[in-house]
Amino acid sequence: MTTIQDAAVRDALRAVHYPGVEKDVVTSGLLRRVELDGANVTVKVDLPTMAVSVAVQTAFEAALLAALLGVPGIGETRVKLEVRVAPAPTPLGKQALPRIKNIILVASGKGGVGKSTVATNLALSFKRWGAKVGLLDADIFGPSVPHMLGTPESPAGGTADKRIAPAVYFGMKVISTAFFVEQDDAVVWRGPMIHKLLKQFFDDVDWGELDYLVIDMPPGTGDVQLSLSQLVPVAGALMVTTPQTVALLDVVKGVSMFKKVEIPILGVIENMSGYTCVQCGHHDEVFSKGGGARLARSIGVPLLGEIPLERRVREAGDDGTPIAVGAPESQQAQVYMDVAAAVAQSLVVRSLAVPRRTPGLNLLK
Length: 365
Fold this sequence. Notes:
Layout: H1 6-13, E1 31-37, E2 40-47, H2 54-69, E3 77-83, E4 103-107, H3 115-129, E5 133-137, H4 145-149, E6 157-158, E7 164-165, E8 167-169, E9 172-176, H5 191-203, E10 212-216, H6 223-231, E11 236-241, H7 245-260, E12 265-271, E13 275-276, E14 283-284, H8 291-299, E15 303-307, H9 311-319, H10 323-326, H11 331-351
Parallel strand pairs: 2-3, 4-10, 4-11, 5-9, 5-10, 11-12, 12-15
Antiparallel strand pairs: 1-2, 6-7, 8-9, 13-14
C-alpha cells in the first residue's frame, strides 16, 4: 500500500500562492495542517480574509487540489478551507493587541471630503462580508459617526469588571467621544488629554475579538495622528480624497506625516468621484476627474475605489442608516463592498509578507 510522506505534500503545495501574495502557502503559514491516511491526504488551509469572491476562493481551492494530484501515488485528496483573518505584524517597539487583528486608519488631508461617511460604510461593509468589526470615532473635536449610525441597539456603558462597553450599531461595536459629552458642548483639550483618552479607548474598552478596527481620523496632521502612531500597531492608513487639486495637496501632507511615523499607506479612496443625474442621466465630474488615480500613482500605492457623489449616500448618513446597510442591494453599497474587499486584500498581502506564527502550535502538521 502506498504511503504518502508529509514532506512530499508540503513540497507540492509550495507551488501554490494565495492571489497577490509573493510567498507560497507553506512559507506564508496558510497551510494549517496535513492529515495522512496511507495514500489519502487532507490538507487544511487558511483563507486569510472572508472578503473574497466565490470565484477567487474556487480558483484557490482548485490550485491546491491540482498541486496535490501531482504527488506520485496519491489517492483521495481533500482540501478544507477555513477563514482565519490574517493579523497585521506588530512593529518593533509597539505593544501587540492580540484580540484586534488589524487596525485601519481612515484619514484625509482636509475636512469635507466625506471621510467619516467612508469610514462608517467601510466598517459596515466589512461586517457584511462576515468580519468581526469595531469602529472608533477618533475625531475628538467633531465626532459625527454616532449621528450617521442612528439609534444604537445597545448604548455605551460599563461592564462588571469596570471596563467600558462600546455601543452596538447594526451588530458593530462603536466608541466615540460623543457618548461622553453633551451634544452641544465643545471639547477644548490639549494634546496630553487627547493622548490619555485615546489610550483609554484601547486599554479600557471591551472590544472583544475583532478582525478589523476601523478608526475614523480627524482631518490634518495633529495630536490624534501622533498619539495613535505611538500607542498601537497600526496595520495601515487609507487616504480619502476628492478629485480636485486643492484636496490632493493636503492629502500629500498627510501621506508625508504617516511616512514619518512609519505607518504604511494601504491605498487611496477617491470620494465624490463624479455625479450622474437621476432624472436625465447626465454625468458630470463636479470635483474634476482622476485626481485619486494620479495621487495613488505618485505615492506608489493602489487606488482602492472611486465612490460616486450620490444624494442617497448623504441622505442615508443624515437619517442614521448608512447606505451599506440601509440599501445593501444598491450600486453605492456594492462600491463600498468592493472597496472593503480591496482593503482586505491589501492587508493580506502585507501581513503574509512574513510567516505567521502561533505560540505552541505547529502550523504544518
